[in-house]
Amino acid sequence: MSLAACSTLPDKEAGKQAEEKSDSSEQQQPTETKALSLDDYLQLRSQAAEQGNWAEYLLQSENAWQLSSNTQKPEIEEQAWSIVRSLSIIEQDKLANHSEASVQAWHLLFRLFNDFNINQQTSLLDLNSYYKDSIFHNHLLNRLLADKPDQTEIKQIAVLLPMQGKFKVVSQQIRNGIIKAFYASEQDLEIRFYDSSNLSELENIYTQAKQDGADRIIGPLRKEAVQNLASFHDQTMLLLNSIENSNVDRFSFKSADPNQQMSYRFKAMGIKRLGILSSDKTKNFVKAQQLKGLWEQQPGNTAEISNYPDLRPKLRAALGKLIHEHNSKERHNNLRWAINEKLEFFPRTRKDLDAIVIFDDANRMAVFRPQFDFFQLDIPLFSDSSISPKKLQKQAVNKDLKGIEFLSYPAVLMPEDLNSVFEAFGWDSFLVTTHLKQLKNGSCLTNAKTGILSMDGPEVRQQQIWLTYQNNGQLVRAPKVVMPVNEVENDLTQQTATNVLPESASIDQTRSQSPVEKFVDLQAAPKATNLE
To answer: Which residues partner with 216 through β-bridges?
Structure first.
C-alpha cells in the first residue's frame, strides 16, 4: 500500500507564508467577477501545463469540460488521463495530498489501474461514492474498465448446442456466428463444440467439457437443458435461454423488451393516444395487450386495440374500426339529413389517435400500409422486430413499408458476413462471454450485432435500434428522438449511455487473413429421442 508523502516545510515557515498570503489578500481591492469562456479555461490549462502545475491543469480541465460539447468532453478526459499516467511518484503524491477532492480522485483512478496491491473493488466503490462527480465517470472510467484485461485468461470455450432434431438449423446458425466472431476477434483461444441434442447425456457432456479444460461454456440452448445445467451454479457458463430463480449468467435471443422501448419513444414524442392493430394470432395479440397495459400505466395515456382474423383477415375493416371511420359516416348522414341534400362523401378521420402500432409480419404489413394512404392518415406508424428483414445479405427494397418505424437489430444495417439474425445472436454470445467481466462492472457492448447489450443481474439485456423505410424503399436508421429534459432520467437510452464500451472495447470486425483454426466438434451424444 502506498504511503502519502509528508510535508518538508517547517511549521514556522508555513505560518509565515500563510501570514504573507493573508496580508497580500487584504491589500487586494475587490474586482468585478467576469465569467470565463471555454477558450479562457483552455488557456489557463495550457499555462498550468507550461508551469508543471498538474493539479491546476486538472482543475482547469474540469472547468473546460463543463463548457465543452459532447464530442469534446471525452477528449478532455483522455488528455487529463494521459498527463496523470505520465507523472512521477512525487507528482502523484502531490495529487493525493491536494486539498481539492476532484484532484485526489485522479490519483485514486491512477492507482486503480496501476497499483497491483490496491483493493480494486474497494477503490472502485470509493470512486463511485466519494468522487462520483469527477468528470472521468462520464467516458474515461468505462473505457478503462473495458480495456482492463481479465485476470482469468480464457484459453478454451466450450459450446453446447443441439445439432440434431428440430433445433439443428438454428444451432447451425448460432455456431456459424460464434465462429465468425472468433475469426474477427483474432484471439488466441480454442473453441470446442459439443452436441447436446440428447438431454439424458447432457450432464456427461458438461462434465466432459470441463475435463477437456473449458474456461467458459456457451449454452445449452433448449429450455429444459438450461434448467438442468443451471442447477450446477457454474459461474463460467453463459446459458442461451431464459430461466427464473437462478444466478447463472444467461443471454436469451429474446432478451429485449420492445414494448418498454416503444413506450420510451412514444413518451419522448409526446404521444398520448395510441392505436394498436393486431391479428388474433396468439403471439401478436399478447404483445398488443402487453403494450396497452404498459402504456396506460402512465397518467393521461390511452390505448385502443383493434384485432382482425389471422386467417382471411379483414384489414380495411380493422383499420376503419380503429380510426373510428363510423364517426365520419355518422357525421355525413347527420349533415345530409340536416340540409336535405345529397353530398359527395369520403370517410376521413379526426385526430383521435397520435400514433398507431401494428403487430404482424412484413408481408401482411406491406398489404396493410397502403390502407393508411387511402384514409389519408398522417400519423406515425410503428412496429416491432416482426417486420425486420430475416435475410441479412439479401434485403429487398420495400416501398410498401415506407415511413413505418420499427425495432430491429444493428446487424440488419451492418451485417458484415452474417447471413441471419441467429448468426448475429451467435456472434454476440461469443462477445458477451469474452467481455463478461466488463459487463458485470456496469459497461455495455455498443457494437454488438443484436443491440446494445448490458447486464441486469445475471441477465443480459438487449436494447434494439429503430429503423425505417424511406420513400424509395431503402432501409435506414429512424430519426433520433430526444426526451424532454425534465423526463430524461426515464429514457432507456440515457440509462445506458453512461455505461458504454467504446469501439476499442468491441472485437475488431475485420476478418483475420490467416486465422489459426482451433475448432473441435465432439459428437458426444447419439441422436436425440426426446426433444422439446
So the answer is: 157
Q: In what order do the strands lie in the sheet with 381-383?
A: 302-308, 273-279, 355-359, 381-383, 404-408, 465-469, 475-477
Query: Is the pLDDT assigned to residue 242 strictly greater than 50?
Result: yes
- CB contact burial 169-208 (16+ within 10 A = b; e otherwise): ebbbbbbbbbbbbbbbbebeebbbbbbbbbbebbeebbeb
Centroid of chain to Cα 180: 22
- Report the pLDDT value the prediction gives residue 352, as an integer from 0 to 100: 76
Q: Which three cell numbers stand for residue 163?
A: 445439432
> What residues does 273 pair with on adjacent strands?
302
- Is-contact 114 106, C-beta < 8 A? no
**138 Cβ partners below 8 Å, 6+ apart?**
73, 74, 77, 498
Q: Where does residue 418 rank: exposed (0-12), middle (13-18), buried (19+ CB within 10 A)?
A: buried
Q: Please give the mean pLDDT across all residues of the chain.
A: 78
- Under a CB-based contact definition with an 8 Å cutoff, are residues 182 and 146 in contact? no
Average pLDDT of 320-332?
55
Residues 6+ apart with CB under 8 A from 471: 399, 402, 403
Coil, strand or helix: which one is 143? helix
Cα torsion 504, 448, 381, 485: sign: negative
Q: Please state, as a whole number, how many other Cβ atoms lie within 10 Å of the Cβ of residue 247.
A: 10
pTM of the model: 0.62
- Residue type present at position 216: R
Whether the pLDDT of residue 218 is over 90: the answer is yes
Give CA separation, 169 vs 2, 172, 426, 430, in Å.
57, 5, 13, 19
Q: What is the pLDDT of residue 320?
A: 64
Main-chain dihedrals φ then ψ at residue 72, nearest 5 degrees = -80, -30
Residue 19 pLDDT level (bands cut at 50, 70, 90) = very low
pLDDT at 530: 29
| CA–CA distance, 434 with 150 (Å, rounded to integer) | 9
